[in-house]
Amino acid sequence: MAQPPAENDPQLPGPSPEQRRRHDLLMAGLDLLDQAIAVFDATPKLVTWNKAMQRLLDFPESLFRVGTPFEAFVRFNAERGEYGEGDTEKLVAARMAAARSFEPHYVERVRPNGRVLAVRGVPIPNLGFVSLWTDITEQRRAEALIQEQNARLEARVQERTAELEQANREIDQIAGALRLSEGRMRLILDAIPAMIAHVDAGRRYRFANRAYAEWFGLTKEGIVGRSVEEAFGPELYPVIDGYLREAETGERVSYEYARKNASGQTVHARSVVVPDVSLEGGFRGYFVMSTDITEQKASQAALVQAQKMEAVGQLTGGLAHDFNNLLTIIIGNLSALQGKLAGGSGAEYVDPSLQAARRGAELIRRLLSFSRRQTLEPAAIEVGELVRNMTQLLMRTLGETITVGLNLPDTPIHALADPHQLENAILNLAINARDAMAGSGTLSIAVQSRHIDVALARLVEVPPGDYVQIDVSDTGKGIEPAVLARVFEPFFTTKPFGSGSGLGLSMVYGFVRQSGGNIRILSTPGKGTNVRFVLPMTQPAASLPSPQAVVQPLPAYEGGPVLLVEDEPEVRKVIRMQLTELGYPVIEAGDGVEALALLEVIDDIALLVSDTVMPGGLNGHELARRARLLRPALPILLVTGYTGEKPDGDTAAQLPVLRKPFDPPALAAALAALAMQAAGSDTSIHPTNPATKESPT
Question: Can you give the pTM of this predicted structure?
Fold first, then answer.
């Protein structure tokens, strides 16, 4: 039997006699269980266990010590073939990865000795997990026996029915056999998970198995004699009344309904009602079979929510492409107008418009970052700047009636985390806060550095060191203590059924823990909620050398024409204008098919600038691949309005990509980089005297 871990800190008082007595009673009670139970902390290491663990699992005595790593038990099982054949290290690694994910699980495993064990793992949020092993060998044998008896019973009933139809003999003996069959059938019906009942023509229960009665919070004996209206209640009974009337006409009907159980939880069931009609004719009642579909409904709701999120992501990507095209036109024309005005009359109207268009492009980029599907890519993030940049998006998301307050450090502090996932986490917490405040209140976001010493690290389950602490607080209704203990559980939500997936906080929790930090929620009903999480602090990324104060002018272009491929006429017009101003002669094509035909007949095309998404069956990536087959040394620049677009094929993956919207300096820089890349190849990109044309940058 496990002993409580010794306290090494002399400042902490030892357990009192009453605490020891209660501990001994608890351990003695656990040892009386037939189930094996073990508790592991978050490291994970063994904290406590009962005697059944050694009896059921045959582990050596040496492993049963406080602090034994969970990996030691896994490795012992793997080496003795408990998990089947395979590489031991891979078997151990797979199970350790599953253990560290702290996700609830249930499996059944047949041991080499033939015993069947049910293994259940239950996470204790932020503390560790509990493992339970139950010997269900006899249960599985009983189930097999029940199935066998059921088959025999069905054969017996068929045999007796045939005899009854052939002759009216041995009535007393047949009646006895039927009573015996009825008793067996009742046992079987109580053993199966389906809910089964029989209702007479007056809509009163004459039989119900255990599962059906417990569904309504009653016993088998207590439900017999009750009316259907009494069992369902005055609110739900009118919902099913129409289905029962249809069954009275001899039709088999199926329907679903929802009700609140004794604990206030909404549960769902699917019922099939079969009319009971005698051989002589006449309606005698109903046979009812119901199935609990609560978990299925929750899964469907989560799937619908995930599909909505996927649809929003796809819609956002398509809209962003169109907006980026529009912004390309706006920024391109405004940049050209700004150059023509050169600070003269009217420039005061152009400059703010150009800045607003660029802010719009930044908002589109930030919006797209929330719809990306990607694994964690940790980087050094200046957290204060990230939160400050999110403020405008948060204010638009939360609405005008919610005030957003920031408390950010004066000096930059950097956290090691995925920036997009951190933005998602803050946005999720802000949306939860908005719902808790019912559309009115104050959301506060504070960022500060935090040092966690050894003593505190044990409590918060992170290594000692320096961290960045982020607090997201609201003035909402708060969270009840019973709910607070479950907020990080996947699919748990207090929102109305179908309006929330229950994944928001669990995803935030997973991101923080996977990033090496931890998260806590403090809440008082009626006084608001504070969500505090820490992420490892890191040094800022090495900055690139600053550019020289005097930028050398770009060489003037003197070569063959540029083939510009863009299906949007106005966008093509803007890019053509920018290329022309940079000194490039331009040939235009409206799609990939037209561009490929031009490449085949015009030999002196020196550069290909192409959009990636175009109609006609030939997109930019495929056009680039086929252009390289025609001219391996042809410089190619791809232009796209999609953020995070993945190129098709190795050729497209190696090509430079210019994101829309862009201004003339960005286009000039991309072309200059392309010219430098192609400098060693035999192309038509040849600069002349640099002094003959000023640099567009």
Answer: 0.40
